[in-house]
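User: I'm putting together a teaching handout on how multi-component assemblies are represented. Below are the sequence lines for each component of a complex, exactly as they appear in our records. Could you produce the 3D structure of the whole assembly as structure tokens, so the students can see both representations side by side? Please keep the chain order the same as the input.
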Amino acid sequence: MSDDPQMTTGTPQPAEELRPPATEVGVLGWLNHNLFSSKLNGILSIVLGVIVALVIWGLAQWAVLDARWDVITDNMRLFLVGRYPPEEIWRVWLTLTLLSATTGLSAGSSGIGSVRMLAIMLTAGQLMLAALILVSGLGIVASLALVFGAGVVYATMLAAQRYPVRRLWISLGWLATTIAGVLLLAGLGDATPLPSVSTNIWGGLLLTMVLSVAGILLSFPLGVALAVGRRSRLPVVRVVSTTYIELIRAVPLITVLFMAQFLFPLVLPEGLRIDNVIRAIGGITLFSAAYVAENVRGGLQAIPTGQHEAAFAIGLRTWQTTVFIVLPQALRITIPANVGLFISLLKDTTLAYIIGLLEILGIGRAVLANPDYLGTQFEVYLFVAVVFFVLSYTLSQASYRLEKELGIGER
Amino acid sequence: MEEFTLKKLVPGLVIGALALTSTAVAAQGGDTLSGVQERGQVVCGVNGGLPGMSVLDEATGVFEGMDADYCRAIAAAALGDPEAVQYAPLTADQRATAIQGGEVDVIFRNTTHTLSRDSAWGDFGPTIFYDGQGMMVRQDLGVTTLEELDGASICVTSGTTTELNLADQMSFLGVEYTPVVAAEIDTVYGQYEEGRCDAVTSDKSQLAGRRSSFADPDAHVILDVTMSKEPLAPVVASGDNQWADIVRWVVYATIEAEELGITSANIGEFAGSESPVVQRLLGESGELGAALGLSNDFVVNVISAVGNYGEIYDRAFGPETTIALPREGTVNDLWTNGGLMYSPPLR
Amino acid sequence: MADEPSDAPKGASGGSTGASIPFYRDVRVLAVITQIVFLAIVLLVLGWLLNNLITNSETRGISTSLTWLDQRAGFEPAESVIPYTPDDTYARALLVGLLNTVMVSIVGIFLATVLGLIVGVARLSSNWLVNKIALTYVEIFRNTPLLVQLLVIYFVVFLQMPGVRDAIVLPLEMYLSQRGFYMPRPEVAPDGAIWLVSVIIAVVAFFSLWYLAGRREDEGRPTMGLRWIASAILIGLPLLVWFLIPGGPLAFENPELGTFNLSGGLRFTPEFLALTVGLALFTAAFIAEIIRGGIQAVSKGQLEAARTIGLKEGEVLRLVVLPQALRIIIPPLTSQYLNLIKNSSLALAIGYADIFNVSRTVSEQTGQPVAVLVIVMAVYLIVSLGTSVLMNIYNRMVQIHER
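Assistant: Of course. Below is the structure of the complete assembly, with chains in the same order as your input.
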């Protein structure tokens, strides 16, 4: 006791610092709090941990040892572009490059982090596709084209950050890209340098993206129109819009697709034949528009009446109020709901295989019918599922980011 | 911060307009032949998954089989180019709507010619294959008759005459069974191979064709029982007599060619033949082609492209194929050999 | 001037200024004209489409009558809840399909809700492993297409089960095989009706006594063990009657292995199982997030206040959290239920005989695609509306009546 340092001199020394108990900090601490905080939790953690480890181990073993991945690599071209003629595939790469450039410019010019996130994902996506193509032995040229496209995204993004482009030019750029994309993919005619490629042989991931993008772009304006119509003061417009929306929302998508498939030729004059793909896009559009309408309607309802009154007070007419004051705010509020809807639309394009379109799931089923690939069902479905998972997950993450940035629900 | 102004909506509308105009076909006053000629293609509804009749070779993208060959024959006759075909794979459930909706010009999809179909939704051409409904079971079950299948599960495709005949036959024989029904042909045979059902029933040519692509074809046996008549024939939409005549007489031309001994190899030697029958067939005399709205030498185009009926049959079911359905002495032989293949005279 | 009486404009035409508004700027007139024009355009477009439809129908021989409904179908759907033979009509075939859809929907909704509840609560757990496992499940099933999930569950899970002869035998004579799940079928013996009656009495008594106990509790009177009595009656009465009836009121028909199949007993086909499980797994992922959102939306202040006044954890959940959470949960839950019902139409891909699948066969055999599809869409409309109405009633029941 007499050696106690504190007692020997007159200056009080601070007591020896006691470390926190080992079970409270660091790895042990984390384990203690999160996994073993109570007896029940402890048992649960151990049991679940063992089960999860077994499952992951089994899956890994299967994937590396037993799985026949040749079913994917042998048919990679089919999975990606269907039966698009190999000598015209440069057009797909060109479209992708244009898309990359426009995305990069948008991402660089706007300050929105989510758009930048999308651009980065586009880069990553193209790099992954390039890797897939290399692994499947489909040729260096294709991989290089994709790597180039990935580079274009990044380069344009950096360029636009230094020299931001005006929004008007960006909008025009998007317009030009979409038109160019359609023309490039479909072709101008057999005599031109761009021979027509019938939409019947588009397939795989290419067809999935075409169906989704076309469906999204077309259903959005129709949905907005329906939402505005449903809230119109004019009873006729209101009744027609409401009937359409409620009718479409009550039936499954597959019935609408079948309806589109054989009703379109019947209600159009004889001889006017619409492509199968166009009919599917039409069905998807009509279906999706009703759901967009409900989302937008919610947004329209949330706009305080003060806005309407102020608009009338300064002399704006009804349609001007709607277009310039109400809609911009309503659409901004409903972005997350609409993005969620578009992600579902992307996944719902898989139903197109039931009406005979060979989008990526349809290609998967067709490949499975080949007797050479007997028993590889899990590999094929897993591949398709992973592709959709990657697309869907990244888009929803971008949507969360966008939600936060736009401050929805906070103001 | 991006504003959502009307400008954002413009791309959508423009795309819609462009898409519709760039890929839709211009309207014209309606008959199928004109439509085909304007389009430059025959849209042919096929199976796509049936070796022997129409199966898609994924690697080459070429459809092979009897039905597929007849599609080429129609294209050769109507357009002079046997490759001007757009194949549209259909499930059994989609045939009626496809032909009624004008989605396809003609259906060559192992379709049985029945009265109700003829009256309800289509016009049938001549039978290209006289088949019968059969039953395929696993060898190790030791079953040889239908009655022994009491209590079994039987796979069948929905929307077919097979489904109806199975119900009729089994109730007539007093046999209890459980149907396992699927819409897609691949699903049906997949279920059978996995063991989901004990037997599968369909046209015998289909059973033989699909068995050839099984993992172990010899483990399955097709019973020596014929449950019904299944005359497989092409279908066109009702109401277009000219097109129906074209399909009909292209089929008959192939049969007539075989009767006269004309093949795709030796057709050149028959040019300038002295026989008036041959002359009319090949278009050297008479205006037969023109009467149908085709060129007079349409038969030459057809035979040069796909050959006569015998050649078409041999390519699909001949002795060199894995399916190998014998033809001699069966109903599919020429009438001169005791079969049913008989062409009315082309004159 | 402020003290001049303001002349409220009398109608849109005129007003105190005396100048009348020309009719082409009169809002009321414009409204009427716009509606007339709009209606005219809609009717014109519809009329043109309808005209084309009629012309094309005539050319191609599509009639629009419904007489085919009474014709003999000639086929039978792969499974049916009601007795059905190929001699029955097409109308009855569609009815079979409808009942199958209803079956799948009810079982699917039940499973999805239970699973969604479990996963939703797991997402709120403080146990990191439980939380992350639930998160993985939700993310995987929400971000992959339902059709792919169904195909995997059917082809990779249920069809790969052992064949009928090697079926997995479970206790109580239940079998699981590639051809389905079999269990003994309970049948009420001739004198077993009394037992059924006793079950009904017991259930009614249970609910009444439980409700009474709740009322007494609210009023502050002692419950006098009413809840225990209620439980005792629920279990005890049927049990008592069971033993009193000679031979037991229920006869079980056991599945037996025949030459080819198990026959007898209650059978659930792999198609039914795959569709139900698939729909449940998919929908439960969405329901889990809805439930989690609802529970998290109840402000922490409520929880703290409830605990302060001495409520036990279970009571906090039952009396404070759930009523408020339910208010938020029920509308999106309704739309998930409707989605499940609509998604059951994917049965076509795995061969389950729901109404859409049956309608495809009927459409092909009768050659009446338009009429059949219209009927099917009408059926879905009615089912959706019915479910919405039921859920709205429940919604109104759980509304907190604010003063």
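A couple of points students might notice: Chain A is about 75% helix and 0% strand. The longest helix of chain A spans residues 377-406.
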